[in-house]
């Protein structure tokens, strides 16, 4: 178990809520690399998403690694954590922290964040075991690499995309479509079109409060039926952008991205989107509304790693 609040032990220090503003300030300086931990903490601090079970660092007040552990029921799988390293060489320290959480968790753990070379770096270390990492990838990717630790590599090389108030191009919604926001009644349809819906045992319970409490945009046809949508993600990027097949090529996707970005830019200086290299249509659509490539490598900012629980020890 990680140490109690404010005390140092072998693995990490658990912070008190009074430390969160200091942590937020430091993480802000490290954007965009720290986005996966900064954004959820910022949203939690504003009571827009649930509070974390706890947040720990490798040391305090000067830290190199951060781990945010969500407060979930025991039957939820996988358990979700957000992680960050100042530099990739601190991957081993972050890995140790996650393994302690994994020991206590009744289910597998999905890590949002962490350096893209995390598995490789851990595998080269003689005093840690990375065999429980069963998969890795980039958030927003169309492909899941379900491989063994020795061959897990992130294969996506494109840059992340960013838009600002100065670069955003507004896109009008064509007649007869209308614009609305996502409500709970739409979640069943939205999740039915999400290809990773079976990854989370609580997919509906997880995404409904995000889609309904954070910023969202949906487009309805003349009958009032949902045909396109997208919403703000907990990790600080727009996502879940989707247009029903029969309504494509009508610029509805561009309208969703533009309108959603405009909403977020009322609160933030910039908005991110994580797009994989082979998704040419999405890249073109984002560029058409003013998104530009930035220096943030999505494999470093938006990566994920699946930690598998050792079922033989249960």
Count up the helices.
9
The CATH class assignment of the largest domain is Alpha Beta
SSE sequence, one letter per element: EHHEEEHEHEEEHHEEEHEHEHE
- How much of the residues is beta strand, in percent? 15-25%
Textual characterization of the structure:
This protein is α+β, with helices and mostly antiparallel strands and 314 residues long. The chain has two domains: 159 residues, Aminopeptidase; 134 residues, Gcn5-related N-acetyltransferase (GNAT) (Aminopeptidase), CATH 3.40.630.30. Helices cover 27% and strands 22% of the residues. The protein is built from nine helices and 14 strands. The chain has a seven-stranded mixed beta sheet with strand order 1-2-3-4-5-14-6, with helices on both faces. A seven-stranded mixed beta sheet has the order 8-9-10-11-12-7-13, with helices on both faces. Helix 1 runs antiparallel to helix 2. The chain starts with 12 loop residues before the first strand and ends in a 7-residue tail after the last strand. About 5% of the residues have low confidence.
Short description:
With 314 residues, the protein is of the alpha+beta class. It is built from nine helices and 14 strands. The chain is globular.
Can you give keywords for this protein?
alpha+beta; 314 residues; Aminopeptidase; seven-stranded mixed beta sheet
């Amino acid at each position: 178990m990680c140490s109690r609040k404010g005390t140092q032990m072998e693995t990490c220090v658990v912070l008190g809520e009074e430390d969160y503003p200091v942590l937020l300030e430091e993480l802000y300086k490290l954007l965009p690399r720290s986005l996966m931990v900064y954004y959820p903490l910022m949203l939690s601090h504003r009571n827009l998403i649930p509070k974390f079970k706890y947040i720990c660092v490798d040391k305090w007040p000067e830290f190199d690694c951060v781990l945010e552990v969500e407060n979930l029921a025991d039957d939820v799988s996988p358990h979700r954590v957000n992680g960050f390293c100042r530099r990739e060489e601190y991957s081993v320290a972050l890995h140790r922290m996650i393994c302690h959480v994994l020991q206590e968790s009744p289910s597998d753990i999905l890590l949002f964040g962490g350096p893209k070379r995390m598995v490789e770096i851990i595998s080269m270390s003689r005093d840690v075991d990375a065999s429980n990492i069963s998969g890795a990838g980039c958030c927003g990717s169309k492909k899941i690499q379900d491989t063994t630790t020795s061959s897990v590599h992130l294969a996506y090389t494109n840059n992340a995309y960013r838009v600002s108030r100065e670069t955003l191009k507004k896109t009008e919604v064509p007649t007869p479509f209308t614009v609305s926001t996502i409500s709970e009644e739409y979640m069943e349809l939205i999740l039915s079109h999400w290809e990773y819906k079976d990854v989370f045992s609580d997919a509906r319970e997880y995404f409904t409060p995000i889609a309904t409490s954070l910023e969202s945009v949906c487009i309805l046809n003349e009958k009032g039926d949902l045909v396109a949508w997208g919403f703000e993600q907990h990790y600080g990027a727009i996502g879940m952008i989707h247009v029903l097949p029969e309504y494509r090529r009508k610029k509805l996707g561009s309208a969703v991205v533009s309108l959603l970005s405009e909403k977020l830019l009322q609160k933030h200086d910039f908005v991110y989107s994580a797009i994989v290299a082979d998704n040419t249509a999405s890249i073109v659509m984002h560029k058409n509304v003013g998104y530009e490539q930035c220096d943030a490598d999505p494999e470093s900012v938006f990566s994920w790693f699946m930690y598998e629980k050792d079922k033989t020890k249960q």
